[in-house]
What does this fold into?
Amino acid sequence: MTKIVSRFAPSPTGFLHIGGARTALFSWLLARAAGGEFRLRIEDTDRERSTQEATDAIIDSMKWLGLEHDGEVVFQSTRADRHNEVIDTLIENGHAYYCQCSKEDVDAMREKAMKEGRKPKYDGTCRDKGLTSGVVRLKAPLEGFTGYVDMVKGPINVENTEMDDMILRRSDGTPTYNLAVVVDDHDMGVNTVLRGDDHVNNTPRQILIYKAMGWDVPRFGHVPMILGPDKKKLSKRHGALSVMEYEKMGYLPEAVCNYLARLGWSHGDQELFTMDEMVELFSTDNLGRSPSVFDLTKFEWVNGQYMQKADPERLADMLMDFLARQDADAAAKADRATIAKAVPLLQQRAKSLVDMLEQAGPFIADAAQLDYDEKAVAKFLNEETKPLLEEIAARMDALEEFSEQTLEDLHRQFLEDKDIKFKVIAQPIRVALTGRTQSPGLFETMTALGREQTLARIRRALAL
Ligand code: GLU
It folds into this structure.
């Protein structure tokens, strides 16, 4: 079997959005699942709408998602000479011709065809004139049909009479989109094209170009689009659209890939897949034919599942990065080791890194900088609880070993001596340690903070 070479060919006119990223992921999986190659081509021929910023954003997003490509990135705009060379070959071998019909001529032809109940198209006026200048058109076959078996949609056949003698080179000398795509895919060795189904009408036209050049036609597949929960085309109002927005929201890249894969691909009713599993299981046979619906709640759930399973050391690094982006000063002062100890206490509940960073607040600030919630302080640190906190702090100070077990024993003894219930001191201690009324378990929190910070916080709270 020949090696699969797939590709992703975005136009750099905006950021990499969810739909594009999913197409990229499917193409990547297709190649990786078959031990093939995955190429990246930036289709930047529309000089007005293409920007360097968008190109960088696409490349960064792919890197972040882990969709590494093989070989050099190809920039379509650098290939105009090659595109024109192919157009000249098509003219030489009789598959293309010059046309000098004006726009008005063509409009009139179309109108006439419509009036006569035919499909509006160029009528071939210049086909056999042997002109040597003007726009260049492909000589489309006048009978038969052009068909292929779409990897997603199944067999697709188009009557050749339905197809126009499409323009390959415009009057300003620039090659057209369909021509450029075919030449680039061919030259890059691409034999498997998976793309959005907004391109499904281009495919028979592109096949005509392959055939005219005598080139092997790739396999094509077109994935249906993604809809919002209201079944309308996915747009900004349904949630964040660009991949990097999810990065900023603190999503893990593998969770994004997992969620995107499930938008249109399935393997039984399994929801969670590692990248390796996806690579192992992916096949275009299980790509859905109908549009998938974007569901932010489910996306959040998938991310939460990945947060729970992620390596705490990696999450600690990611938290430090996030913090540095938010507040460089706080990041410089934060103790990474304490944060790393806090991660396992937080990761069961955090929905995202941003969420986790918020919950990790008390482990980031040191005693002197900790923010105390005024209401919590007023409610729990009062004349009744202060002496209890003072005494328990003194006992902790005297502990030989400062561990969850010794702290638990110490508290049990304290409650017994004072004949009080844990709830009398639990919230006061929590507020003293974290400034808040919600935190992970107290003994775990104390252990993560360490004795020095634990005592310093109780002392600061007592002084409030
Ligand atoms: N550049 C096209 C787009 O961004 C994709 C072309 C293709 O995949 O063939 O929609």
